[in-house]
Amino acid sequence: MCVIRTLRMQVIRFNEMTSELASKEGEGDLSLEYWNEGHKRYFEREGTYSEEMELIFEEFELTEIL
Question: What residue ranges carry the coiled-coil annotation (predicted)?
């Protein structure tokens, strides 16, 4: 368990994801292309994918490990 502090939250559309935000997620090679491919596959499996779908992007920091 841990405690986090939210630094920023924003609502963006899938097709508005930026290279900067994709790299902050820290997955794969940190590229926007990798982010798009992986997240598109996930949302397609869930049956919710749309280029216009809204996503909540949260930036946070770890403040304490419990």
Answer: none
The correct answer on CATH 3.30.420.40 for the domain covering 2-65 is: no
Distance of CA 29 to the CA centre of its chain: 14
Instruction: Report how far apart, in Å, the C-alpha atoms of 66 and of each of 1, 34, 42, 47, 62 are.
Output: 5, 33, 31, 36, 11
> What 3-state class would DSSP assign to 34?
helix
The vertex-20 CA angle with 16 and 3, nearest 5°, equals 105
Check: CB of residue 35 under 8 Å from CB of residue 25: yes
Ordered by start, the domain boundaries in the chain are 2-65
Please indicate, yes or no, whether the overall pTM of this predicted structure exceeds 0.90: no
